[in-house]
Fold:
Amino acid sequence: MDANQGNRKAMLMVFVLFVLGVALGSVGTYLVTTRVLAARPQTLIGHTASEHMAMFTRDLNLTTDQQGQIQAILTDTRAHYASLHEKLDPEYEQVRQQGRERIREVLTADQRPKFEELLRQMDEERRQRQAASGAHD
Structure:
């Protein structure tokens, strides 16, 4: 029965790691699709804000007055997105740190330093992306 218990523990560990991977992947995807895209106020899904305005102006036949009003709405909307991200950043960081701590508990003493180095690299890459996009940390 010891072999059975060992197998169950191994299966449970695989399952826990899978669930943790899905959760971290989901958070990562959410962050990329919401934070990174919203943190770039000059771009919206592959187009600059000016390209969107040109498209709106052309396709909707906007007047000069409408262009100004819509530009103000878009600028205000981006500012609200940035404000939301600023408010939620501490919560994202808390979730990130909790996930990392849970991973540390699973790792062996030999694996932990390697994990810390991976985290250092990931954090540095994140800081560089944020600096390049003008986002805050």
Observations:
- The chain has a mean pLDDT of 81.
- Residues 64-106 form the longest helix (43 residues).
- The radius of gyration is 22 Å.
